[in-house]
Specification:
Blueprint: H1 4-19, E1 24-33, E2 38-39, H2 41-47, E3 54-66, E4 69-70, E5 75-82, E6 96-103, H3 108-121, E7 129-135, E8 137-141, E9 149-153, E10 157-162, E11 175-176, E12 186-197, E13 206-207, E14 211-222
Parallel strand pairs: 6-7
Antiparallel strand pairs: 1-3, 1-14, 2-11, 3-4, 3-5, 5-6, 8-9, 9-10, 10-12, 12-13, 12-14
C-alpha cells in the first residue's frame, strides 16, 4: 500500500511531466559530405581517414513544435568539420567542430528551439558549436523522390542534389557505404551537384561538387 508521501511524490512527478513541452516535428532533410557515401570498397578504403570529415546538413520542418515552440515552415542547417572520416566504424571521427545556421525568420525562442532540435537530431555531431549564424534559408524540391533538392543559407552554405544515374557508377559494384548523419524515416542516396561552406569558425572553407556524397530523405519525431 502506498504511503501518503509516496502518493504525493508520484502526483508531483506526474504534474511536472505534464508541464514538460513535447516534441512533434516532421519534414525533409538533405546532407552532403566531401567523400562518396555511395561507392565501391576499393574507393572507400582509399578515402577513409584521408577525407570525408566535412559535411553540410539541413532540416526543413514542414510542421511541428520543439520544446513547446512552433517551428512550422522553418529550417536549420549544421556544418561540421570532424577529426576523421564521418561514419567510419573502425575509427572515431571526434572531436567535431560545428556551425549551426538558423532561419532568419525565426524569433528568439524559435532560434533556440531550432538549435536544440538540430543537436538532438544529429547526436553528438553538433555538440561543440563554435558559431551560431542567422541566414535566409531556402529549401526547394518539386518532388523529393526525384532527389532534385536544393538548400541554401544565403551565401554561407549550400547543398544541391540530383538522382544517381548509370553513368555515375565507376566499378559497377557500388553500394551505400555510409549511413546518413541523422535518423530518417526514409533515406535516399543522391548525387551532389553542389556542396559548399564559405563561413568562419571551422578553420576552412570548401566546395565539393560532383560526388556521390549526398542523402535526401524525410524525418518525423514525436516524444
Amino acid at each position: 500500500m502506498l504511503s501518503l508521501l509516496a502518493i504525493s511524490s508520484l502526483a508531483t512527478s506526474l504534474v511536472v511531466a505534464a508541464e514538460i513541452p513535447g516534441n512533434s516535428v516532421r519534414g525533409e532533410y538533405i546532407e552532403a559530405r566531401d567523400a562518396d557515401v555511395y561507392t565501391g570498397p576499393c574507393f572507400a578504403n582509399s578515402e577513409v581517414e584521408l577525407t570525408g570529415n566535412l559535411a553540410v546538413m539541413g532540416w526543413k520542418i514542414e510542421k511541428g513544435s520543439w520544446q513547446g515552440v512552433s517551428l512550422d515552415g522553418l529550417s536549420v542547417m549544421g556544418v561540421i568539420r570532424a577529426a576523421g572520416t564521418l561514419g567510419d566504424v573502425m575509427h572515431s571521427a571526434y572531436p567535431v567542430k560545428a556551425v549551426i545556421i538558423v532561419d532568419e525568420r525565426a524569433d528568439v525562442e524559435q532560434r533556440i528551439a531550432l538549435q536544440h532540435f538540430a543537436q538532438r537530431m544529429s547526436g553528438d555531431l553538433l555538440t561543440d558549436v563554435v558559431r551560431v549564424e542567422s541566414r535566409p534559408i531556402q529549401f526547394s524540391t518539386a518532388d523529393l523522390h526525384s532527389r532534385v533538392v536544393k538548400m541554401t543559407a544565403g551565401d554561407l552554405a549550400q547543398v544541391a542534389t540530383r538522382a544517381l544515374e548509370d553513368t555515375d557508377q565507376i566499378c559497377h559494384n557500388e553500394a551505400v557505404w555510409y549511413e546518413p548523419l541523422t535518423k530518417l524515416d526514409h533515406a535516399m542516396v543522391a548525387y551532389t551537384v553542389q556542396e559548399s561552406y564559405q563561413g568562419q569558425g571551422l578553420g576552412t572553407q570548401w566546395s565539393y561538387p560532383g560526388q556521390r556524397s549526398a542523402f535526401v530523405g524525410t524525418f518525423q519525431i514525436q516524444d
